[in-house]
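To the wet lab folks,

You asked to see what we're planning to order before we commit. Fair enough. Below is the target structure as tokens, and below that is the sequence we designed to fit it. If anything looks off to you, flag it before the synthesis order goes out.
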């Protein structure tokens, strides 16, 4: 039998997403969520989590690609931010910058990650789990900066690089395997497999029994108020797990 953890990403990104995640907790569709502390609705998200009794299931959704950074220094660098100061995800568009960044850029990124981790702890959330928006924590340039901070802030677990898939190039597979091995060797990997609901549904027969699997969801509402996960209605997920 598989042990399945269903996590809702993007908590705090908007009021509608916050409400959708709360509904998913009430319906027992999800078992945890991760918070974007730099987003305008982060305070609301934490209040909702505490008032609805799931604040002990809220980790950090590290964000270096969307919205406004929490620190000024990182806004100076075009690899991270637009002229208006908002994140632009430019470093994510180039394999070289995903693997390596200069000292000044890395120092600015360190400051931003440090501030987001500090804010997460200020909220009094005990989960001490970390994943990230657009999976940036799996980029070598990011995790080399991130690793010392994980110890400093006593982060207990970190999401794997996606390892449930149909087809993937050998270089990507080798990179993912090495990254996941690093997490396991440091005691930070608490799951065996990670992927989206679609990944899981299409590859469930390949996952060994007794594995711990994390499934990533993005709860939101359609224009007519139907709860769904990015594309499929949430009813498809509940039917599958039932």
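Sequence we intend to order:
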């Amino acid at each position: 039998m598989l042990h399945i953890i269903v996590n809702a990403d993007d908590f705090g990104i908007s009021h509608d997403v916050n409400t959708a995640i709360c509904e998913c907790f009430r319906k027992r569709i999800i078992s945890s969520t991760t918070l974007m502390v730099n987003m305008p609705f982060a305070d609301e998200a934490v209040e909702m989590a505490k008032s609805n009794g799931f604040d002990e299931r809220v980790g950090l959704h590290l964000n270096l690609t969307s919205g406004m950074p929490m620190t000024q220094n990182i806004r100076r660098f075009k690899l991270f931010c637009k002229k208006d100061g908002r994140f632009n995800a430019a470093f994510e568009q180039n394999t070289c910058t995903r693997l390596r960044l200069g000292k000044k850029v890395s120092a600015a990124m360190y400051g931003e990650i440090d501030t987001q981790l500090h804010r997460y702890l200020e909220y009094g959330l005990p989960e001490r789990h970390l994943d990230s928006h657009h999976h940036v924590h799996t980029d070598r340039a990011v995790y080399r900066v991130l690793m010392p901070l994980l110890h400093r802030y006593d982060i207990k677990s970190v999401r794997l690089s996606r390892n449930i898939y149909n087809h993937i190039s050998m270089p990507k597979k080798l990179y993912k395997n090495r990254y996941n091995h690093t997490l396991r060797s440091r005691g930070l990997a608490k799951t065996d497999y990670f992927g989206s609901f679609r990944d899981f549904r299409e590859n469930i027969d390949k996952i060994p029994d007794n594995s711990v699997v994390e499934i990533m969801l993005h709860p939101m509402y359609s224009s007519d108020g139907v709860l769904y996960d990015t594309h499929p209605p949430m009813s498809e997920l509940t039917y599958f797990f039932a």
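Structural context that might help your review: Helices lie at 15-26, 42-51, 95-99, 103-122, 140-152, 170-185, 197-203, 234-241. The chain has a mean pLDDT of 95.

Thanks,
Computational group
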